Structure prediction request, 499 residues.
Amino acid sequence: MKSNVTFLILMLLSVLPIFGVPYEQSEEYTRKQAILNERAEQFKAETDFIGEISFNHQYTMFSSMMGNFRDIEITVPQDTLIMKKIFDQVFTRLKPYIPASEGQLLCMGITRNMFGIYVSYKQLVNGYPVFGAGSLKISYYSRVKQFSIVNSTVHIQDVSVKPKLTIDDALKIYSENVLNDEILILFQNREAKFKLSYCNINEYKVDTEPIYRLCWVGGLASKLVIDAVSGEIYVYDNVSMHDLAVNIGGTALLQSDNIGNLNASNEVFNNTIVYAFCDELEIYRYSNDQGNVFFHGELISNVKAYLQSSKFTFFDGSITPESPQFTKNLTDELDPLIMFDYYDYIGNPSNQYYHSVKYLDWLSNNGVTDTLLYPELDIATGCEMLSSGQYYPLGSLIKISRESGMLSSPICHEMTHTLVYHTLGENFFSPFPPNSQFQMLFGGMDEAFSIYYPCAYRDNSSFRFPELSYDLSNTINVISILNMKWITSLGQNPGIFKV
Prediction:
């Protein structure tokens, strides 16, 4: 009996590794993470890079970077020739840290889009592309003044390999192995499509080192990866283009200004940008009114949301001097939700972002302004500052204090100053330099708009700052608004508006 129990225990122990721990908790993952962390520190030290670096653990390499190089200053991002020289500098610094050899990278040229400018490279090994990988893209986003580097190149030796199988051989192997192709059942006059590429024959084995072979890759309803020399089938997979719907949201406080209720609710974020890689291509989408973004492709990865709309880009003002953008990755495709939680950050940027987007929608829906005419703004939250908020019209920047994060009044207040400034042709009501008479009348007008509209947006007469609140129902004219004790520096500096 004792021997039977011992045998059972040994059997159970032998089963455990089959199920094992998740790869992210394995010893191999930990070992690779340590190697990558060391390389990241070395890269930063050697290249003066400051920013965020993400890794691909299967390939033990960098997959993406977002940040800047301390010694590279960009003053004219619209000049293509200057940007080409800068991109060449960045490429030179990257070469020792990417697996592809320089001779394998073909420059595809410089391109511009609505976010900035980028250069892309395609990896060719002995003239053949790399399936599902083999690209390098260096972008500079003018609005956030940062580089974005995305790398999917791989290490393949430059050893000449001559395929023995022709495309007709690949088609024959397909027809012999895929007997009930759903597409061929519908359309008998079609045939599978194959191309020669270097392919990772372990592409579905995340915890296995990649091995690249020259293969015929393709098919129709099914995908085959066939060794171009031996004819061995490495991958047989039923594939179809699929959609990934990602929902973007965050925590927001809806009654903190009205009644002081600090209970947060989960709200969807519309008009919010999300990036993803769809079959090697970097794609961006804006979320719809339900907070949903849809991506299409056979392979969708690296899905990341930004606290960025078509008008506002949010930065972490609690981390200086870098002040990085707020981003969050999708961690589980089975639960495709990216949620910005105010617990994760200083100054509750999630709440600030939610109300900035909603407030602009409200201004537009009520005929106060046209969304298209409202200027683009950088908004830094979580800032250490004496005032609750500041608007810098010449720098198109709003700063919000960390203590104001739980409220909406300060951010909406500064956004209204922005609206007035641009509506009046880059002027405020209060002229500069001010005198006491003009400051009393016109300065009150500046504040009246910026106090009234945020309250109208919430349909509540309470205007609230961290240190106090004020009931507008007791205010009868703009002079009484100006005399509110928390209007601290009206008219002192034409470049800054703060409360």
